[in-house]
Predict the structure.
Amino acid sequence: MLVTVKLIGLTGMPGSGKNAAHKVAAELRIPVISMGDIVRKEAERLGLPLTCEVLGGVALSMRAEGQDAIAKRVQKQIAKLLKLNPPPSAILIDGIRSIEEWKYFRRVHKKITLVSIVASPKTRFARLVKRKRSDDCDNWTFFENRDLREILLGIGGVIALADYTIVNESTLEDLHKNLLNVFKKILEEDC
């Protein structure tokens, strides 16, 4: 299925600042599909608590069906967006964690532009402790274990393949400005 919509894939370790991209996407009228939300919905469907450990287990269980299992569920949401009249000019996919997921989107859509947000472990941990989402780790050992799980899924390879990398060690305003600049560049690129 060849489409004219621009796919923007977002990747980064937990606490790197990916959620800030949702606000920027909204400003640019780019719909967002979160791979993490798909995992959270599956956990809710199973009646499980939305903790870091549980969601990690659910994500691994889903990927046991195939490393692109979550990407295939995202594709169903993309297909719905493409039926809109008019369809969006771009879609942001938040939370690509493996080469297989990236390859899946390339196979289906021919092109996906990857944006990586990176920050040091110390910075990311402080953000997660402050954010206090139910699946955030407020214990350094749990945080390290979560990072290791993400690395084992292959997120490092996806980060390395990014077309754009944003270092997020400064303010939220700086991140917002950098994301806005990158997203505008992507929207202006030829397909």
